[in-house]
Design brief:
Helices cover 68% and strands 2% of the residues. By secondary structure, the chain is mostly helical. Keywords: Antiport, Cell membrane, Ion transport, Membrane, Transmembrane, Transmembrane helix, Transport.
Length: 931
């Protein structure tokens, strides 16, 4: 064994260390900071390759970090051939993608620093998944990948589509992960060992519980690797930036389920249930994904469904449980990682440079980007299984694994079914690979060329490098064969040994490969007929609809339960808690006392009423204060009585030798009383609602029963003590903790996890309160203009009434004056004066309206000169909002779209995956995106 006690954990920790300063570094350096972010995966890949000679020779690299040695829990790491292959994908391809990000993103993009940090954390979590040797640690890293992928998929959180896709992916992967955790517990309990290597080396005996455990574990693996019917989340996750999709959905995250199946296969592949589940779901996923890929117009969605198909293929190979299938799985695992990440990065360049990913809008890119076109064509050829690429080598090995006589399926019929399914899936793979190359780079006479920016050499370098590796492994498969043999060595041997090679002679797999190429080429050439066939086929049940139905049902049940339980009444909440306590443990205690199962200790020596008369005095004060508090109708006296009650309990703590606890309680009671005094100033003097009648009697009965139960239970538990109090152990071991105060030692050492939990609770409460405060502030900012308008309208009405009163007063005064020989002139003058007064009062009160420049008189009168409204707003309407008010023209609104890669980012948004247009040269209509 290679002893590297701290190097691998240090590499894992390096990911977190680098992730922390990335946000400010990205703000300062821009996308160039991604080069620094790529250091941890690059270091990990170099370390793994340095260990490769010893690992393929059968000596696994191990490391262990003690976590809770007393409980037998530690962070154990083990790198064997399978883990090494995964590290090549997770860290090697990851380092290339980080370099690609430096050319892909633009300086100043929103949330770029957060994206870089989370991407590094995801890389570290994925590295933990493939290297840990403990089931519980595997689950922790597993869920870390789910959480970080949620943040990555929902990177552009301003878009509802991104938020919805991220939530869907999290619910699916984390939900099935919980089922997997239950399966882990059952497997570890049955085997008596929670190490993965020990579990595989000595699996538990069969039985119904083992069957349930395997089903639960496979549910977690299928959810993570997007197996039918849980495949719907992966195409939805294509809203993520293209580098994220290339990393998560081609090289790393979706391989987690494949890794888990392959990791457990040596121990459980002989179980019939395991084999049929893995082979059945894997083959169905391969066929469904390939069929759906053929109808996609968005290049990224085409690759997404192609990834679903390839994941089914990999799960099928990983769980088959034979050496040939194991060799094929390692070859296809490496091949898929390289060719699919290269193709995703190619789509990112196309979208970045042209503003679209739609096949129906692209033409002529093969002439304008020849280097990228050649690289992408070679990668697609590897995906299609064409020689001399590594995809061909792996595909031949896969077909060899299911040749009748060597297949794990029982009987010749099962072998024929599996081999037929693989051939059909490979034909679909060839067809959608050809569709990708034609759609991205071919000249289409019915499509006009779009604007184009030539990509830089650094931008194209990443997909070219990944394609070069795929070509190199195909020309020299001996480089990957030792890794494949190292993993297959632990699987049951077949009828003959198999090694990766570009040429095995004229064999059945080679003939089947020729059939795949011919049939796949025919499907592509006849793509119009295939499209018409897909459109005429009935719509199959949609798993995503089932997901939405499930989520809607959960929300409906939650709302129904909330309406019935969350009434907003604290007495009701407390009553539910006390009633539950009485119905469950209380009923059990009563039954035990009645049947005699629980012994009642004798009164003599069972308990003492007090240790000193002072305790009796303090207890009497507490009891009297409690009764007085309950009977008090006024808020402030009740608060004082409640504080006295708290101080009385603190006194009991002092008398029992706990001065630190008493001091803490006194401080809490004092601060609480001071805060509540300020709060009570704004509340009514008396309580508004008091229980009466049956409610009051029920409250008294419930409280009395709960108090009786608690007192009786404490008495029985105290009398039933069979060992010395744990406090004695605290005293004896206090010196080892190095503290001077026993209470502090208990809080900080002996019960540190309790203290940590309390800190987490307080921190969570603080975050919740801060969120409410900030939300309230945002609401006030949004509502402020409306409130200002309402106050202004009220003030205007008041001033209008004052003007009318003034006009009436002037008119009455004029009527009282003696006639001056002018007839009705004074009356007419009074009326004019009244009108001028009204205009004067309104104009003076309103004043100029800031940027609008209008006066309230002009607003009321229709603007200068008559019936048109003033420039600032409509006639009679309120004044315009200030420039900083929400919705004002000064508000820049949403940031302009960048030439990124999410569907909404493109200059031409990609079509809905449910309604994609047909091929540019097919004018028969469009399909609905369902198989």
């Amino acid at each position: 064994m290679i002893d590297v006690p701290m190097l691998l954990p240090a590499i894992l920790a390096l990911h977190a260390v680098v992730a922390v300063p990335l946000p400010p570094l990205v703000r300062r350096l821009g996308p160039r900071a991604f080069l620094l972010a790529g250091v941890p995966p690059a270091v990990s890949a170099v370390w793994a390759l340095a260990q490769a000679p010893a690992i393929v020779a059968g000596r696994a690299a191990t490391a262990e970090v003690a976590w809770a040695p007393a409980l037998g829990i530690g962070l154990n790491f083990r790198v064997d051939a399978l883990s090494l292959a995964m590290i090549v994908l997770v860290s090697g391809i990851g380092a290339v993608i980080f370099c690609y990000c430096a050319a892909y993103f633009h300086h100043g993009e929103r949330g770029l620093g957060r994206l870089a940090a989370v991407l590094v954390l995801f890389s570290g979590a994925m590295l933990g998944v493939v290297t840990t040797d403990n089931l519980f640690a595997l689950y922790v890293f597993w869920e870390l990948t789910s959480v970080t992928s949620f943040l990555l998929v929902g990177h552009d959180d301003r878009k509802e589509q991104a938020r919805r896709a991220a939530t869907q992916a999290l619910v699916t992967t984390a939900g099935t992960g919980l089922l997997m955790l239950i399966g882990f517990v059952m497997l570890g309990h049955a085997a008596g060992d929670y190490s993965i290597s020990g579990l595989v080396a000595d699996p538990p005996d069969g039985g119904p519980w083992l069957t349930v455990a395997l089903v639960l574990v496979l549910a977690g693996a299928f959810g993570k690797s997007a197996q039918v019917p849980l495949h719907f989340w992966l195409p939805g996750a294509m809203v993520a930036p293209t580098p994220v999709s290339a990393y998560l959905h081609a090289a790393a995250m979706v391989k987690g389920g494949v890794y888990l199946v392959a990791r457990l296969a040596p121990g459980f592949a002989d179980a019939d249930l395991w084999r049929w589940l893995v082979l059945g779901f894997g083959l169905a996923t391969m066929l469904v994904g390939g069929w759906r890929a053929l109808r996609q117009d968005d290049l990224k969605l085409l690759l997404a469904y192609g990834t679903v198909s390839q994941l089914g293929f990999l799960v099928l190979l990983g769980g088959a449980g034979t050496q040939v299938a194991g060799v094929a799985m390692i070859a296809m695992l490496l091949a898929h990682g390289f060719f699919k990440s290269a193709l995703f990065l190619t789509v990112g360049i196309i979208d970045h440079q042209t503003g679209t990913r739609s096949i129906s809008r692209l033409t002529g890119l093969g002439r304008r980007m020849p280097v990228l076109a050649v690289a992408a064509t070679l990668a697609a050829a590897s995906m299609a299984g064409l020689p001399p690429l590594v995809g061909f080598v792996g595909k031949e090995a896969a077909l060899e694994a299911f040749v009748p006589g060597a297949a794990p399926a029982p009987g010749p019929e099962g072998s024929a079914v599996m081999l037929t399914g693989l051939v059909l899936g490979s034909i679909l793979t060839f067809a959608y690979s050809a569709r990708f190359v034609w759609g991205a780079f071919a000249d289409k006479s019915t499509v006009s060329e779009r604007g184009f920016r030539r990509p830089s050499a650094a931008f194209v370098a990443a997909p070219v490098a990944l394609t070069a590796v795929s070509l190199g492994l195909g020309l020299a498969p001996a480089l990957a064969d030792p890794l494949a043999q190292g993993y297959a060595h632990d699987l049951p041997a077949g009828h003959h040994a198999y090694h990766l090679s570009l040429w095995h002679g004229i064999t059945l797999p080679l003939l089947l490969t020729g059939l795949v190429i011919a049939a796949g080429a025919l499907m592509f050439v006849r793509r119009r007929a295939v499209s018409r066939l897909q459109n005429r086929m009935p719509r199959w049940p949609d798993a995503e609809y089932g997901y939405h139905l499930f989520v809607h049902g959960v929300y409906s049940v939650a709302l129904s339960v909330t309406r019935r339980t969350q009434s907003g009444s604290l007495p009701v909440y407390l009553g539910i808690i006390l009633a539950t306590m009485l119905l469950l443990p209380g009923a059990r205690l009563a039954a035990g006392l009645i049947t005699g199962e629980i012994a009642v200790p004798g009164v003599q020596g069972a308990f003492r009423l007090w240790d000193s008369p002072l305790e009796l005095l303090v207890a009497a004060v507490v009891v009297v204060t409690t009764i007085a508090t309950v009977r008090e109708h006024r808020r402030f006296p009740a608060l004082i009585l409640l504080s006295v009650l708290g101080f009385g309990i603190a006194g009991l703590f002092v008398l029992h030798g706990a001065p630190d606890l008493a001091l803490t309680l006194v401080l809490v009671e004092t601060l609480t009383t001071i805060i509540l005094v300020f709060v009570l100033r704004r509340l009514p003097t008396t309580f508004s609602v008091r229980p009466n009648g049956w409610a009051k009697r029920l409250t008294v009965l419930l409280c009395a029963a709960a108090g009786t139960f608690i007192a009786l239970a404490l008495w029985l538990m105290t009398a039933a003590r069979t060992d010395a109090p744990i406090s004695q152990g605290y005293t004896e071991r206090a010196d080892e903790a190095g503290g001077d105060n026993l209470v502090n030692i208990i809080l900080a050492d002996f019960r540190a996890l309790d203290t940590l939990g309390e800190i987490v609770v307080l921190a969570t409460a603080a975050v919740a309160v801060a969120s409410l405060v900030l939300l309230n502030r945002r609401n006030r900012v949004v509502d402020e203009p409306a409130a200002e308008v309402a106050v202004e309208a009220e003030e205007e009405a008041r001033l209008s009434a004052a003007a009318e009163e003034h006009a009436d007063s002037v008119a009455a005064h004029a009527a009282a004056e003696p006639a001056l020989g002018q007839g009705q002139a004074p009356a007419r003058g009074a009326g004019a004066e009244a009108g001028e007064a009204e205009m004067t009062v309104r104009g003076t009160a309103a004043g100029p309206e800031g940027a609008g420049g209008e006066s309230r008189a002009e607003a009321v009168g229709g603007g200068p000169g008559g019936g048109e409204p003033a420039e600032g707003g409509p006639a009679g309407g309120p004044r315009p909002r200030p420039a900083d008010a929400p919705g004002d023209a000064a508000d820049p609104g949403p940031a302009p779209p960048d030439p990124g890669d999410t569907p909404a980012d493109s200059a031409d948004p990609p079509p809905d995956p449910r309604e994609t247009p047909a091929d540019p040269d097919d004018h028969e209509g469009s399909d609905d995106g369902r198989p």
